[in-house]
Amino acid sequence: MTAYAHDIAAGAAWTVRLNRHRALRLTCLDDGANVSVLMFAAADPLERLNVPDTLKAQMSACLRPPLVLMSDMGRALATLTGSSLDWHDAVTGHSTDAHLDARWGPSDYAADRNAWRRSARAGLLDELAKHGLGRRDLHATANLFTKVVPDGDERGTLAFVPGHASAGDWAELRAEQDLLVVLSSAPHPLDPNPAWAPARIRATVAAVPAPGPDDPARLFRAESGRALAATERSLA
Amino acid sequence: MTAPAITATTTLFDATVGAGAGWTGELPAGAHLRIVDLCGNQAVDTLFFDARDYANRYSAVDTIREQGAVYLTTGSVLLSTGLDPLATIVDDTCGRHDTLGGACAQESNAVRYGEHTRHQHACRTTFVREAMAWGRGLGKRDLTHNVNFFMNVPLTPDGGLTFADGVSAPGKHVELRAERDILVMVSNCPQLNNPCNGYDPTPVRLIGWTP
Ligand SMILES: [Zn+2]
C-alpha cells in the first residue's frame, strides 16, 4: 500500500526520510532523467553511502538489482530491489554550478523564476545544510537512470550512453535501516543534450516486507548477505 | 631499476613508511612528491586536501568524470570537490593507478571476507589515526574516496569490477606536483586478504621536494 506519492520537479533537490523497510520508488516522468542520490544513516549521519565499498564487495562497476548499497561501516543502508534498467551510474559524480555556467550561461531566480537552472551540487548542499550537514559530508552519488560505460582500454575511457532512460523507467530502493536520502533531479554533466532538459520524477513511498531468508539481495553474493546481516544484527 | 635523479632546491621530507603505517604532511604549491614502491605490488592509499580548506578535498568521481577515464596516470589532474586542481601526476613508471576501490576498513573486510577478519588492521583505521594525530579538526567525516597508487582494479564494459594482481614492481614510482598548498595523508595498506599487496605488505618511500 502506498503511503504517499510526491512529484519532484525537474532539476530540483529533495530530502526524504525513509524509514526501515519502506521502499522509495522513483519513476521518470520525462525522457533522459538523472537522479543523483546521497544517503546517510538517520541515526548517525557520520555513517554514509560508500560507493567503492558497495562496488568492490559486489564486484560491480555499476548499480543494478539486487545490489545492496553499503555504508562505510559495513552495513546495508538500502537495497536496489528492482529497476526497469540494468545500469545506474555511481562513478562519475554530479553537476556543479561551473558545469551549468559553462554550457548554458548564468541563470537566476530574478530572471527565470522557478525554472532557474540549479546544479545537482547546489541543490544537494542546500538540502544537506537543512540537516546540519555540508561539504564534508559529500560522497560519491548514486546516479540513477544514468549509464556511463568504461571502455576496456588501458585508460578506462568512459562513454556516456544517451537515451538510456525514458519516461516510465523506474528504480526502487528498500531502506534496510532508517535513512536520510538527499537527491537532485538535475541532469548529469556528461549528458550531451544541448538543451537544459531535466526530467520530472515521481517518488512513491510504501511499506514493504523485511527481506526474508531467500531475498534475492541476500542470496546475490555472500558479501551482500553479510552487509544485510550486519544491519539486522546492529538493530536486533 | 634506477629512478631519475631528483634535482631539489630543498628536500622537504624523505620518509620510509612501513607496512600498515601512515604518514601525513603538507606540500606547498609547486612542490613534488614521489612515492616509491620499494618492494613491488604495494597499494598506497592516499587522500589529498586543500591545505587552506580541508572541506575542499580530493574527489575521485569528479576527477574521473573530468578526465573522462577511470584510471590515473601521467597527466591525470587530481581534482577537489570544488573542481580545483590539487595535484597533477607528472611521472609514472607503473602505468596506472586506481581511485575507485576505496580504502580497506575493518567493517568492509568483515563484509568482503567474513567476520573473522574484523579485527585485522586496515587502512581506514590508519586514516582515522592520522586525522586525529594531525588535529586541526580533521576526523572520520573528512575521510573520502581515496587514490590507491600501485593498485589495479579493472572495470569492464559489461559492468564487472575485480581486484587484480598489481601492475607494479620493485622500484616503480609515481610523482605528483602540488597545484596549490595541499595536505597529503597516506595509509600504506595492510590488506592481507586480496592480491593488492601481493599478500605481503611492504614499506614505501615518500620523497618531497621543491624543484
Ligand atoms: Zn588498505
TrEMBL record, chain A:
Q: Which InterPro entries match?
A: DUF1989, UAAP1
Q: Which PANTHER family match?
A: RE64534P
Highest rank taxon of the organism: Bacteria
Q: Which residues belong to any copy of the DUF1989 domain?
A: 7-180
Q: What is this protein called?
A: DUF1989 domain-containing protein
Q: Which Pfam families match?
A: DUF1989
Q: Give the organism, scientific name.
A: Yinghuangia soli
UniProtKB/TrEMBL annotation, chain B:
Question: Where does the record place the DUF1989 domain?
Answer: 16-183
NCBIfam families according to UniProt = urea_degr_1
Q: What is this protein called?
A: DUF1989 domain-containing protein
Specify the taxonomic lineage.
Bacteria, Bacillati, Actinomycetota, Actinomycetes, Kitasatosporales
